[in-house]
Amino acid sequence: MRRLIFFTLLIITNMSVATSSIPDDICSSRNDPARNLNMYEKVVHWFFEPKGISVQEAKFIANHPQIAKELKEFGEISSAHAHIFCQPRLRKNKSDLENSEADALRHFVFSTLAVYFHGEKGSQFLMAHEIKGGHTLTRDDAMDFTNNRHGEQFANELLQQKNKLTKEEVSYRALDRGVQLLRKGQLSLIEKVRAGPCKNLTSKKGSDLRNLIESHRKSFDKTLQVCLEKGRGYAMCGVRSR
Fold this sequence. Notes:
With 242 residues, this protein is an all-alpha fold. It is built from 9 helices and no strands. Helix 4 runs antiparallel to helix 5 and helix 5 packs across helix 6. It is globular, with a radius of gyration of 19 Å.
């Protein structure tokens, strides 16, 4: 209900009340006072930021609900591709889901889909998604920005070919290119996975990599279907317990 109320606020109001109306600490969930936001934005910031949604992202969702719905689907597809291919492992205190090859692939595939199908609006969402009220960029942010930029470039490369592709084909091509870029060390990483197909990608032979990608293409739909039937969802499909 709270989420519905705030989405309604986003759509029907465009308030610009002075920031002094609300204490600065309403926006302190990430040590980010967001002093340049008006009251309406501060309330939205306070509600969405702990959930990982920036003010800019919430505004984009309100202004472009249909695109946002499709981008959500792209996020699910990209998570499934990255995790099924890399088979990241959950560990006791840390997860291979973040800042690793799986994470780099996820961002690359998602940004490719977003820009291929929605152009400038896709690029706007990518920027909005990574901005958290103006806080200082972290290493995680820098990694995501870099991998998103590579995905945008690949999307534009596909668009120049003028062949109309389905989202399934774009996602497969993005996975293929992303794995190749990982092998060359061109996607940004902070952590490296300790096991699974994505371990030591840079040292794999080209033929071995092609076999992995071809195997992924053949098994992806079936693997994902089994995951969804078991209630594992897109994000956890392919993820192994420690």
